[in-house]
Amino acid sequence: MSGLRLRRFLRLAAAGLPLAALPVRADPEPPALAILPLKLLDTSGEPLDQGAEHARRLAAMASHLAADLGGAGGYRTVRLAPETLRARCPDERPACLLAAAQAAGAGLVFVGVVHKSSTLILQLWARLVDARTGRAVLTRDLNFRGDTDEAWRRAEVFLVGQIRDAAPGREP
Questions:
Q1: pLDDT for the residue 112
Q2: 136: which strand partners?
Q3: Which candidate, 10, 28, 30, places its Cα nearest to that of 19?
């Protein structure tokens, strides 16, 4: 309880007012976070087409991010479907994507890109952006090893911890 609230409480209690007269404050709703579809930048030069496998991993990572950041993760997550965004923002301009997130009720937007530079080396560039201003409020650039489901999932779990630790109202 803040000092001002405590003093107010003590004054009311001293005046003999019943405690039931104090306003009950519900826990604030967690901030709404729109999860944009993740993108892949593959500069590995591998001859094997892994497009379908990577599309599946990107979708799974976005799904896991939404689930893991929701609830106990400190956010209320909103998934923006790729087909909805393609129809609404075919050129993927940032202003349009931010407007789509706001229309979905989100004040924050998650933007993520996985860069595959080789079979063993991948990076995950992640940003939380204020949907009103377009400014980054959190930036994480992570490296992970291995282009496997397990490696991608571990990277996502680590990123969730980073985002959760930086959630508004969370004490360091």
A1: 97
A2: 129
A3: 10
From the CB of residue 158, how many other CB atoms can be counted at a distance below 10 Å?
A: 14
Mean of per-residue pLDDT scores for the chain: 86
- Max CA distance (Å), the chain: 80
Q: Is 7 exposed, middle or buried (0-12, 13-18, 19+ CB in 10 A)?
A: exposed
The residues, ordered by sequence, that sit 6+ positions from 121 with a Cβ below 8 Å of its Cβ are 143, 145
Q: Which amino acid does the sequence have at 134?
A: G
pLDDT in tens, 111-150: 999 999 998 999 999 999 999 999 999 999 999 999 999 9
Q: Token match 């007012």: residue?
A: 17
Strands 121-130 and 108-116: antiparallel
